[in-house]
Amino acid sequence: MLVVAATHGNERCAAWLLECWLAQPSTLVNPQLDLALEYGNPAAHAINRRYVDRDLNRCFSAELLRGSCGDVAEVVRARELLALYGPGAECPAAVVLDLHSTTSAMGNSLVLYGRRPADLALAAAIQAKLGLPIYLHEGDASQSGFLIERWPCGLVIEVGPVAQGLVDPAVCRKTQLALEVALEMIAAAWRGELPLPRRLVVHRHRGSLDLPRRPDGTALACLHPLRQGRDWQPMRSGDPLFLGADGRMIPYVPSAELAGQTVYPVFINEAAYGEKGIALSLTSREVWPVEEPWVEDLSRGLQRGCPL
Length: 308
Hints:
Elements: E1 2-5, H1 12-23, E2 36-39, H2 42-46, H3 62-66, H4 73-85, E3 96-101, E4 107-113, H5 117-130, E5 134-137, E6 154-160, H6 169-191, E7 199-209, E8 221-223, E9 240-244, E10 249-251, E11 280-289, H7 292-304
Parallel strand pairs: 1-2, 1-3, 3-6, 4-5, 5-7
Antiparallel strand pairs: 4-6, 7-11, 8-9, 9-10
């Protein structure tokens, strides 16, 4: 199992936990798994910045990994991690767990990229134990190259809110709890004893919105105070969304595709997403039946990996 902290160098909570675990391994409850603990972006962590040259969590696309970006620090690091633990390594990781924090009020949550059966099985088992909300990111060509996509199974543990560069003990506790339950579920799947819930609740990505902007790119408005901090909460047409400099409320107006639907915003006002033109992302809440082949796919993947 590969556990990664500080994929973003200024997300300090998971990095602090990693330091504690390396100093005292007994502080991480581990159900007999062979764990590799890695700083995702140690260079960015050392200078307390999200990244050095570009976002590491967008550097795992096949195009970048095979390209000529030899001097881009994060592409070099992505190749190093794959050489150490990727599918072609001497002892590849069966599962990768990527630990993140956010300035948004996401609480303790999980993030999946796409619908790989093994990922869905693991997420469903964790959700059944802890009740964590799940953000399913898919169908967004502008956002790709995520770390966990390069391993057969993986998920992101995302906890917030916490300021960039700050270690918050409450966020650390929530991160460790989610990680330990994930490890417990992986061990159960290895033994063929993964508890199978009947349903999985996901918040499926339906698009992102930016702040209203002038032609020169400067913001015309900020998030409305009635929307700030309300991640996972419903939003309907006409609800307050932005607040102009003149004090005018700017309501949410859905696209034609989302007309008449209730959406559930996530990553509201995430500080790092301003450069990506994202003020919040919209999701639809869906309930799926859990399928037995998901668990079978996870178990097969673990059997193909290194011995636990």
